[in-house]
Amino acid sequence: MEIPRHWRLKQQRYALVGEVCPHCEEKIFPPRDVCPYCGNEAKTQFTFSGRGTVFSFTTLTEAPAGFEQAAPYTVALVKLEEGPVITAQLTDLGDRPVEIGMPVEMVTRKIRAEDEARGVILYGYKFRPVMETPK
Amino acid sequence: MTETFPQTTFAPLKPDRPVGIIGYGAYVPQYRLPASEVARIWKGGRAATPIKEKAVAGLDEDVATMAIEAARNALKRAGIPADHLRAVWVGSESHPYAVKPTSTIVAEAIGAVPHIQAADWEFACKAGTEALVASMGLVGSGMARYAMAIGADTAQGRPGDELEFTAASGAAAYIVGPAEEALAVIEASFSYVTDTPDFWRRPEQKFPMHGQRFTGEPAYFKHITEAAQHLMKATGTTAQDFRYAVFHQPNTKFPQRVASLLGFTPEQIKPGLLSPIIGNTYAAAALIGLAATLDVAQPGDRILVTSFGSGAGSDAFIIRVTEAITQRRGVAPTTQAYIARRVEIDYGTYVRFRGKLAS
């Protein structure tokens, strides 16, 4: 059980809350309080739009411990609209083939349950193919 | 009993300060289990099925994740920051935890914490509409400007039970606020509640039990007609005054029959009758039906919504659509857009998704 660690990360995990640098205006994810681009302090919260594209991907059939129940699943490097590239599972793919450059959007899903029937359920960001919105 | 306390003397619920729906959002997972698959496994392939197919949550979905997406859609349509909400209430009979609120997970994910009321509601299929009535009270009293009520379920049926044809997954979220900001004004509400054990699940049991045919006349039909008829009588309205009507929908036939009993035409219930293609989404059922109806309604249209929760009770609402709907509903996916992204699964995949394999 790593309750405090997961609890500390909940905002970034649930809703892609990162930071924006007040000096160079680069968007930062995950948040780290120091801008990796200009080196200045950066503590201003910024919620990412959740839109991005698949930069690269791979499908896991032999899942690491804790993720066996989800296999096979696809993990991608997602380039967010605002700049950063993050690693996340893709979901709701159905029979759709994944392609580099495919537009995706963030959804909050179950990541894993520590100790399947008794432990804390971890939720966090995954990405799915973009849904059409009317107009 | 009704002779000594005639129900008709009770006025419908109307807050001092007029309230309405300022944002709404639906969510339906993409997986579909055709009823013919259940019939194939359990009925030798030969059974009249109560619906065509039902929506099934994926492996990484539960009431919290579905409620989060519905809530985000509602916030988009409301156009308010999440931290303006003063309540996040989630009604369900399939909360992910027995102890630990779903509502805190949802409120954290949408950014509504920490200055809010949050709690989970339980009243079988009307837990969500009960939260909606409470939201009317919170906003209508002036204690809060905005409150969010959600109905969501990943309903379970025992393998081989009749419920397995229909027990489905989905969510719908509503933000109640002042009537002047509403895309649909809630004109009045009325509820009808008795102790009627038509469907239940005891603690630590995985699957519910039900009273077979007892779920019909004394439960579903009695409570819905009482709530709806009283509300219409008290407000001086008849079925002809409504453009649309939405009823709780455990299958295809029940809502069709109760609509006819109350004088509504098949046309009036058409946009909100989704059970044939998504199943019974329990606490979300009437609320998703309302969302699909709001997706197509025009300013001035009146909608009668009546939920039903086993155990048993019904909440009825009269809703009037305003001009604001045409501006705001396009900013989030429609209910039909969710229904359209359909991935068919077989019974084996369904058993895996719903955790029905012993290990």
Description of the structure:
Chain A is mostly beta strands. Chain A has one domain: Beta Barrel (OB fold (Dihydrolipoamide Acetyltransferase, E2P)), CATH 2.40.50. Chain A is 9% helix and 40% strand. Chain A has a five-stranded antiparallel β-sheet. In chain A, strands 2-1-3 form a three-stranded antiparallel β-sheet. Chain A is globular and about 45 Å long. The relative contact order of chain A is 0.19. The mean pLDDT of chain A is 93. By secondary structure, chain B is an alpha/beta fold. Chain B folds into two domains: 19-182 and 328-351, Thiolase/Chalcone synthase (Peroxisomal Thiolase, Chain A, domain 1); 187-325, Thiolase/Chalcone synthase (Peroxisomal Thiolase, Chain A, domain 1, 3-Layer(aba) Sandwich). Chain B is built from 13 helices and 14 strands. Chain B has helices spanning 35-42, 63-78, 102-110, 127-140, 163-166, 216-234, 253-261, 266-269, 275-278, 285-294, 324-328, 335-340, 347-353; strands at residues 19-27, 31-34, 53-56, 87-91, 117-121, 147-154, 169-178, 184-196, 199-200, 209-210, 244-247, 302-306, 311-321, 343-344. In chain B, strands 5-4-6-7-1-8-13-12-11 form a nine-stranded mixed β-sheet, with helices on both faces. In chain B, strands 3-2-14 form a three-stranded mixed β-sheet. A two-stranded antiparallel ribbon of chain B has the order 9-10. Chain B is globular, with a radius of gyration of 19 Å. Chain B starts with 18 loop residues before the first strand and ends in a 6-residue tail after the last helix. The relative contact order of chain B is 0.19. The model of chain B has no long low-confidence stretch (mean pLDDT 95).
